[in-house]
Amino acid sequence: MGRCIGTRSIQFEHPVAIRSWATVAGRKEASGKLKRQFDFILEDNIFGEKSWERAEQKMQQYAIELAMEKASLYGHQLDYFLGGDLLNQIIATSYTARNIGAPYFGLYGACSSLVEGMILASCLLDGGFGRRAAVCTSSHHDAAERQLRYPTEMGVQRTLSAQWTVTGSGAYILDQEAGNWYITGAVPGRVIDRGIKNSSDMGSAMAASAVDTISAWLEDMHDLDTLDYIITGDLGKIGYEICRQQLTERGFDIAGKYYDCGMQLYHAEDQDVHAGGSGCGCSAVVLGAKYLPLMAEKQHSRLLLVGTGALLSPLTVQQGQTIPGIAHAVLIEYHQEGSGC
Amino acid sequence: MGRCIGTRSIQFEHPVAIRSWATVAGRKEASGKLKRQFDFILEDNIFGEKSWERAEQKMQQYAIELAMEKASLYGHQLDYFLGGDLLNQIIATSYTARNIGAPYFGLYGACSSLVEGMILASCLLDGGFGRRAAVCTSSHHDAAERQLRYPTEMGVQRTLSAQWTVTGSGAYILDQEAGNWYITGAVPGRVIDRGIKNSSDMGSAMAASAVDTISAWLEDMHDLDTLDYIITGDLGKIGYEICRQQLTERGFDIAGKYYDCGMQLYHAEDQDVHAGGSGCGCSAVVLGAKYLPLMAEKQHSRLLLVGTGALLSPLTVQQGQTIPGIAHAVLIEYHQEGSGC
Questions:
Q1: Is the CB of residue B300 less than 8 Å from the CB of residue B338?
Q2: Confidence band for A341, pLDDT divided at 50, 70 and 90
């Protein structure tokens, strides 16, 4: 049974192990800073399918199957599957859930869905409602752009504040059994709306929620000194700068600890991604390909992962409404074999 | 801490009370079988707003505020808000979450979202992660039809297998404190796909999941004799008949106990709704306006509420793919004052 600390932070009584994970990424993603650190790299964005949407579902399927293979698990050994994506009706995830066959909770938190799923899965396992859960999210550049902005074939010029929706998927197997990486705490996010209406400036729409969630954690737990990393999902250059500045103004010395997954994936200058990467796939692949391995370089390390989501609806933006944002966080701790949790 | 029973049923250690609820419905809905049993009835479907989507969000706002008023609660007293709707990016719910300000988990389970939210909220409260949560869902006929099928102004002739998306919203406040109605158990749903491709025959797409979930509960708990009601969300006439027949074939004697919310709302013959009501708002208003009050007519009664969802994506249906279904269930028990839970 978990404990609620302070305003809205959660500390798990029985921390949940991240038993295995897998990442699948597109060619453009594999040509970036993380090079070939992904478990599987697509030849091209269509991935042998008839549509980008089918290609997105196939990425999820690969990610979750690879993650299960690493943990020597079969679908029927999963008590829950939680996930989401950016397609309307999160249809890629629904098809994946059908193929896996485990009890399924479909989530929509835009690009915060990975961490939303990690929080709910950890609560389910810590609460005794099961032993093992998979969390998987994805995004696909071309499928997302044609649904949320313009079809990529139109060649519409992108503004400098725009981010590049990542083609990628990450799957994580959470388990009550022992491991090296653990989810030990969480902060569920609140929806915050700063009145942004520009669907090509998601960083500004999400930054305030990230500040709200990170501040809540730091004020509840007073553990900034022992945190090795604070990682936001996909604020990009603009959102990162707003978040960094506002946290500093609130008195949090985050220098040298704070990074954004959206800025860790591509070579910003050479790859024409403008403000950085974004999408449900962004934090999903960067966490698994970069940060979890990085955590293992120390005997014990602590990382606050903050999934950021712009709850953008093209329809209501056309109707003159604003884009609300949300940020969910989990605390991940790494302990070298034998050093305990 | 909860207990897992049998294959995938959950029994809550500390059953969660349904402390209050409220229902908001359209005029057509209020002209049906339940007449004026709703807490608030719209004058018309536009509800004083500029668009149907804004009207849908306003319905949610009314539902949740009325439910909180009945429980003498304010937004800051909610530890969690869970919900969803049928609009792309569940945008109505995101705006409601923004206005309420509580930590928010956005869900997409199509018309099963109410029960998906009730399961997750019950796990959060039983697991000790909070004391109070609100669950709210909605659907709006005109907003849903123009997004998922045809704009209603087109006057496209509806097939006889089509259901009528309900204009309505229901909000439920779950609380660790004592009450009369309790959520005492649950079955999380699996995605099942019978190859249906007709977006005007949701009943057939969902029936198999309902059978799967109800059978799982009955096989795990062996409590059919003491169940007063088994209520599916929105299978409509066609799905109801498939579900009834398949449950009977599996040896479950559900005669006189099994009803579908989609068939309890409208006068099918006079109101031109063909196979019955559907949508996230269907079970949300029928549960609160009809079944929870009905449960109070006995000293102790037990109801299995089965939220059914057709995970329909117009895009992937156009791409030749099928419509998967899901069904989540909760067991609700009523105890007259003093008779205990």
A1: no
A2: very low
Q: What is the pLDDT of residues B105-159, one digit of tens each?
A: 999 999 999 999 999 999 999 999 999 999 999 999 999 999 999 999 999 999 9
CATH number assigned to the domain comprising residue B121: 3.40.47.40
From A301's Cα to the closest Cα of chain B, the distance in A is 25
The reply to whether B171 falls in a domain is no
Q: How many CB pairs under 8 A join A and B?
A: 181
Which pLDDT value is given to residue B269? 82
CB–CB of A133/B188 below 8 Å? no
Helix H or strand E encompassing A11: strand A9-25
If asked whether residues B147 and B230 sit together in one domain, one would say no
A188 and A136, same structural domain? no
Q: What is the pLDDT of residue A1?
A: 60
Q: Which of B80, B190, B311 is opposite residue A102, by nearest beta carbon? A: B190
Chain A residues within 8 A of B84 when measuring between CB atoms: 108
Cα distances from A128 to residues B64, B115, B140, B301, in angstroms, run 30, 20, 37, 27
Show residues of chain A in contact with B50, CB under 8 Å: 319
Same domain, B136 and B203: no
A299: three-class secondary structure by DSSP? coil
Say yes or no for a CB contact (<8 Å) between B53 and A101: no
Domain housing A115: 3-154
**pLDDT at residue B2, rounded to an integer:** 72
Q: Is residue B60 part of a domain?
A: yes
Which of A116, A115, A275, A307 has its CA nearest to residue A202? A275
- Chain position carrying tokens 């999408």: A279
Chain B residues with CB inside 8 Å of A127's CB?
1-2, 123-124, 126-129
- Tell me whether residue B174 is in a domain: no
Torsion on CA atoms B196, B202, B207, B208, rounded to nearest 10: 30
Q: Is B169 domain-assigned?
A: no
Looking at A154, A171, A199, which one is the last position of a domain?
Answer: A154
Longest dimension (CA), chain A: 57
CA distance A6 to chain B (A): 12
Most confident listed range (A335-339, B198-202, B257-261) = B257-261
Q: Are residues A187 and A327 in the same domain?
A: yes
- Interface test with chain A among B52, B90, B108, B194, by most A beta carbons within 10 Å: B108
What residues of B are in contact with residue A8 (Cβ under 8 Å)?
A: 79, 103
